[in-house]
Amino acid sequence: MLCGFLGAGKTTLLRHLLAQAGTAGAGAHPGRRWAAVVNDVAAVNIDAQLVDAPPAGKLVSIGNGCVCCTVRDSLAETLAELCATGTYDHVLVETTGVADPRAIAGLFTRRNAFGRSLGDFARLSSLVTVIDSRHFLDEWQRGRERPPPEPGMPKPVFELMVDQAECADVLLLNKCDLVAADELDLVERVLRTLNPRAELIRTERGQVACELLLDRARFDPVATPGAAKWIRVLQQPGAPGGVGPGTGVRPAGAAVPHEEEYGITSFVYAERRAFDRERFLQLVRRGLPAGLLRAKGFYWLAQQPADIGFLSVAGGVARTEAVGTWVAELRERGVITDAEIPASARAHWVEPAGDRRQELVFIGTGIDESAWRAALDACLT
Ligand SMILES: [Zn+2]
Asked: How far does residue 163's CA lie from ligand 1's centre (Å)?
């Protein structure tokens, strides 16, 4: 499964991989039969026109939507049909530039209303996220100059790029020829921080030996979606535990390195008192500490006691939104009884707040943790 933002070089990589399918005898597995699925949000699939069907293979184009959200069923049907032929050893899927790898992984790991999953037909071998080194670095460095998006606005581009890097088995650092050596080190450091589990491969113009990507199944239904550093931090012993409402991600055995690489530190801010809305929003929009690489988590505002607040910081830009209703609110309104409190909320339950809480992960270099904690404490009511 090839993911990665627009222009990262997915199509070039796909073409390069498919070209290798034709070199019978050259690889370790001559004559492998491959199919390719190319997905484009537009009705006319430009990428598909750039890609030649592999020899003895098949090229399927899925247009008019994105396989991670609007045309999920098309991907499921296409893969089921390809598998039913019994003809293909590998299927390479190029997703749209805005596709969320987490949603794609879910197609293989979760069952739909009919009890079916893509995992019934095919095994997801690897989530590969292709990254344009230059673009990623530029977005990363420009982030701090941008005004924070208003609540409810769509995800900034860079946050989407970070999401794609955080849920991946392989990070293909493409266009390495377009950045200087020290810049490449910086991109690599940032990516290793965001996703310590993924294998990092440096490449230029998508020139990757197919054996590197196809001969090792790396996807793990628990470890891959749980690879993000912020998730690992929350799961450390001593952390408040669980990842919070809705995510349901609990990687088993996701070891957190004792020595933090590159001087990067991380910590969880957990509290059972509400934030004052103005003070908290002012702090995350104007007062983020220098060196903050990533922040993510849930917050609770005194002025909006019903709403589960969600904070995501990537590249210096803070995005806040309400993502749901605290279970405690539902109980107070009499919508549910004590017995109906879901286990996921019960795991975080502390009277009198219930599941309402501050649970925020901060990752960065050179952050003065006690000063930052004090700044957050000052937002409490
Ligand atoms: Zn999508």
From this structure: 13
17 in a structural domain: yes
Higher pLDDT among residues 129 and 86, named by residue: 129
Examine the pLDDT at 257 and tell me if it is beyond 70.
no
How many domains, in total, are found in the chain? 2
Share the mean pLDDT of the chain: 83
The boundaries of the domain holding residue 16 are 2-214
Q: What is the distance in A from the centroid of ligand 1 to the CA of 70?
A: 6
Q: Is residue 150 part of a domain?
A: yes
Please state, in angstroms and rounded to a whole number, the distance separating the CA atoms of residues 173 and 189: 12
Q: Which residues make beta-bridge pairs with 275? A: 301, 380
pLDDT in tens, 138-176: 888 776 666 667 766 777 778 888 999 999 999 999 999
CATH code for the domain of 312? 3.30.1220.10
Confirm if 228 and 193 have CB atoms less than 8 A apart.
no
Ligand 1 mean position, distance from CA 253 (Å) = 30
For residue 42, the CA-to-ligand 1 centroid distance in Å is 12
- Tell me the percentage of the chain whose pLDDT exceeds 70: 84
The confidence band for 44, taking pLDDT boundaries of 50, 70 and 90, is: low
Q: Are residues 64 and 132 in the same domain?
A: yes
- Ligand 1 center from residue 1 Cα (angstroms): 13
Q: How far is the CA of 30 from the centre of ligand 1 (A)?
A: 34
Strands (E), the chain: 2-3, 34-39, 58-62, 90-94, 128-132, 170-174, 199-202, 264-271, 292-301, 304-314, 317-325, 358-365
- 245 in any annotated domain: no
Same domain, yes or no: 55 and 124: yes
Residue 205 and residue 323 in one domain? no
**66 Cα: distance to centroid of ligand 1 (angstroms):** 4
